[in-house]
Structure formats: structure tokens, C-alpha cells
Model the fold of this input.
Amino acid sequence: MTHDEALKQLRQILEEDFKVPPAKVTPEATFRGTLGLDSLDAVDLIYLVGKSFGIKATVDNFKDLHSVQKVVDFVVKTKAASATA
Done:
């Protein structure tokens, strides 16, 4: 999975489930600041990312992933690791 594919899929999750305009979902965007998600939204997002990308996503995995780019990097890295395992 490429960074562009992961970004596109994450953008789709944020648009469909959180009503975030796609134009706001940039790599630099932060979930709480730029996108306006609260802590309950964050828990939902972790679940949806795990389900959508087929990875194990937990609050511990995501506690330091505050921006779109960090989540995209995490997804790509996790998918690559599981592909080689």
C-alpha cells in the first residue's frame, strides 16, 4: 500500500463517517485542531482505520499519531510489516 492510497482511504473515512470536507484532509492536518475531532471521535476513528485497512489498531498504537500524515505513515508501515511476516 502506498502513502497516496492510504491517504485516499483515510480521507474517505473522515468524509463519510465524520463529515470532514475532503479538502481539509491534508497530510499536515491534525485531528483535534484542523479537523475538529473530539476524544470520542478519535476512538471511533481508530476502530474504523483498523477495520478499513485490516490492521490491529489500538488506542496505544494511536496515542502519538496526531496528524493525518502520522496515521498514513503508521498504516503503510504496519501493512508492509504484515506483508513480510
